[in-house]
């Protein structure tokens, strides 16, 4: 069988390859980079969807506070000299409701380094920055802003009814108003931590009890959050 128009076919193929070479290459962006921050939860059967999640602040404070005697029957608080409490806090905003979510961990000072982060203030950051976000289940630190003696998670919820907390009142001179028994069936679990181009994408599930100053209870249930961290 003879091919009569071989030069014409060759010319057509050359034109086709030239056109393909000049076409722009469209690269699909990684799905992980396209995921946006989100959160949802329910209170007393009503579902709340977040309007946004923001980084509040990062700070350190004294850990393992204890009462020591002071003048005129006042007491003083003394913390552990070799360790500190490190806190990263995020704000989950929903209609008429705001949650301040704190990731809390006690570090020995030799596990930290004095530095700044993303042009933020200088303080003692953990050398392992993702350690506080490790996969797994976490207790709610009912001694947060009190003795600061436990690592874990803390929630502060503000709505039209008032301020509700997952932890006890701050005065160490009084009996704790919220204890681990009050959070017996509560759970916070980090289920995913994935590296992005800038920072990490964290996913977590949660349920817990929060209380106002009169020990009025609100149950936060079916909680889920996805947030970019360490950007």
Structural features, described:
With 231 residues, the protein is mainly β. The chain contains 2 helices and 15 strands. The chain has helices spanning 6-22, 31-34, and strands at residues 38-43, 46-49, 52-61, 66-69, 75-78, 83-94, 97-108, 112-115, 123-126, 136-138, 152-159, 162-165, 187-195, 200-211, 217-229. It has a 6-stranded antiparallel sheet, with no helix packed on it. The protein has a 5-stranded antiparallel sheet with strand order 3-6-7-11-12, with no helix packed on it. Strand 6 and strand 7 (97-108) form a beta hairpin. Mean pLDDT is 88; it is low at 16-28.
The SSE string, one letter per element, is HHEEEEEEEEEEEEEEE
Strand order of the largest sheet: 2-1-15-14-13-10
The average pLDDT is: 88
Number of strands: 15
Secondary-structure-based class equals mainly beta
* Beta-strand content estimate: over 45%
Determine Rg (CA atoms, Å).
Answer: 26 Å
Shape: globular
For the largest beta-sheet, the strand count, sense and barrel status come to: 6 strands, antiparallel
- Low-confidence segments, given as residue ranges, are 16-28
Helix content: under 10%
Distance between the termini: 66 Å
The tally of helices reads 2
Keywords:
231 residues, mainly beta, 6-stranded antiparallel sheet, 5-stranded antiparallel sheet, 15 strands
């Amino acid at each position: 069988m003879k091919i009569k128009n071989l030069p014409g076919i060759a010319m057509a193929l050359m034109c086709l390859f030239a056109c393909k070479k000049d076409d722009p290459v469209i690269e699909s962006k990684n799905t992980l980079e396209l995921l946006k921050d989100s959160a949802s939860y329910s209170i007393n059967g009503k579902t709340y969807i977040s309007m946004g999640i923001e980084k509040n602040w990062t700070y350190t404070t004294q850990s393992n506070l204890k009462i020591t005697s002071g003048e005129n029957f006042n007491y003083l608080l003394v913390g552990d000299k070799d360790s500190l409490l490190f806190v990263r806090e995020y704000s989950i905003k929903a209609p008429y409701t705001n949650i301040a979510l704190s990731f809390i961990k006690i570090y020995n000072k030799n596990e930290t380094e004095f530095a700044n982060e993303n042009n933020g203030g200088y303080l003692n950051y953990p050398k392992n920055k993702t350690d506080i976000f490790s996969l797994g289940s976490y207790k709610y630190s009912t001694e947060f802003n009190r003795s600061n003696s436990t690592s874990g998670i803390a929630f502060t919820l503000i709505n039209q009814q008032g301020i509700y907390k997952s932890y006890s009142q701050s005065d160490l001179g009084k009996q704790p108003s919220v204890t681990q028994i009050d959070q017996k069936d509560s759970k916070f679990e980090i289920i995913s931590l994935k590296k992005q181009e800038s920072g990490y994408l964290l996913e977590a599930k949660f349920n817990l009890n929060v209380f106002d100053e009169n020990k009025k209870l609100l149950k936060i249930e079916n909680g889920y959050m996805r947030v970019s961290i360490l950007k």
